[in-house]
Write a structure and sequence with these properties.
The chain has two domains: 114 residues, Gcn5-related N-acetyltransferase (GNAT) (Aminopeptidase, 3-Layer(aba) Sandwich), CATH 3.40.630; 151 residues, Aminopeptidase (3-Layer(aba) Sandwich). The chain has nine helices and 14 strands. The strands form two sheets. Strands 1-2-3-4-5-14-6 form a seven-stranded mixed beta sheet, with helices on both faces. Bound molecules: coenzyme A (COA).
């Protein structure tokens, strides 16, 4: 069977990557259709990062997304796992002289074996993400301070405030009006699952966006934030809970979220566990220095 590699050419390819990711999704997957859309569309820099797709009979069977200078995301149909060394070589070529890192899940044994063969070493002390899930039965009701309202966004009319609350929560201007407009236009964004808390003064105080994979009835929470002026009022818990109720209404059965699991950034994990999320797997950093020797696949 012939497999051809080609470079990413535009939004139709993002959808082809999402199709593979959706088709392959399970609780052993690194990626969900939602985080591909969120990560791809919200900054210009990320839009420039190189992506390659491997196709068999016109269908994408693997993709690799170099997050330069030193990171790689990838998804490979397990039936095509012999492609892994070629994909890692592609990334070696892009990373050049720099050390590089890949963060598979503990459950991705094919990938972890390929990384060891390719000269990567696990870094057990590195920061990691703890993948959490919960089912949507028995959700608590959102509890809000007086005068605050939870609601879904109303597309363009809310765009300024929606971007402002994200920028304030993350103390960053990487998400812009233009990039958020792109997010809103992307599959599978739904305004019904993009929730905010409106403060008495009209500002948006907190937000929670959920991406619904309706094939697996599983929504990904990405991202959540509370404006620094409104922290510790229960608003993140309230906006997530309200968004999870909306997900259940849209047919979702489960939700997942990936907070940091190490002690250096513990608050989001505490927040999600306070809403009933529980960890099910984690990322582990594999690092390769430029001088590492590549072992042949056996
Ligand atoms: C994480 C974040 C969303 C929390 O927002 P928040 O509105 O202040 O959180 P809440 O008031 O709803 O807190 C809910 C629970 O989370 C935990 N929590 C929140 N902030 C905490 C803190 N600073 N220290 C310890 N626990 C904390 C508590 O258990 C809290 O419940 P309690 O107040 O009843 O004890 C906010 O700090 C933020 O926007 N951070 C930057 C963006 C970010 O990291 N987003 C999450 C990425 S996965």
């Amino acid at each position: 069977m012939t497999i051809a590699m080609r470079r990413y050419t535009g939004p139709a390819d993002l959808r082809a990557m999402q199709d593979l990711t959706q088709h392959m999704w399970s609780t052993s997957s690194s990626h969900h259709v939602g985080d591909l859309a969120w990560e791809r569309l919200h900054t210009t820099q990320q839009a420039d990062w190189p992506i390659a797709l491997w196709e068999s009979q016109g269908k994408v069977v693997a993709w690799a997304w170099a997050q330069l200078p030193d990171g790689l995301r990838l998804e490979v149909d397990p039936a095509h796992s012999p492609l892994l060394p070629e994909i890692l070589n592609w990334f070696d070529h892009l990373a050049g002289d720099r050390p590089r890192e890949i963060n598979p899940l503990d459950t991705q044994s094919d990938l972890r074996t390929a990384l060891l063969r390719h000269g990567y070493e696990p870094q057990d002390e590195a920061p990691f993400f703890a993948y959490h899930s919960r089912d949507l039965t028995g959700l608590p009701e959102p509890v809000l301070p007086d005068g605050f309202i939870a609601r879904a966004v109303r597309s363009e009319e809310d765009l300024d405030r929606r971007v402002a609350v994200h920028q304030a929560a993350w103390n960053s201007t990487r998400v812009t009006l233009e990039s958020y407009r792109n997010v809103m236009a992307a599959w599978p964004y739904r305004p019904e699952l993009d929730w905010v808390i409106e403060a008495p003064d009209g500002r948006f105080a907190a937000n929670c966006l959920i991406w619904h994979d309706d094939l697996h009835q599983t929504g990904l929470i990405e991202p959540v934030g509370t404006h620094p002026d409104f922290r510790r009022l229960g608003l993140a818990r309230a906006v997530c809970t309200a968004a999870l109720h909306a997900l259940a209404k849209e047919g979702g059965k489960n939700a997942i979220v990936y907070p940091r699991g190490d002690d250096a950034y513990p608050v989001p994990q505490i927040l999600y566990q306070s809403i009933g999320f529980r960890p099910y797997t984690r990322t582990r950093t594999y690092r390769k220095e430029r001088a590492a020797v590549i072992s042949p696949a056996t």
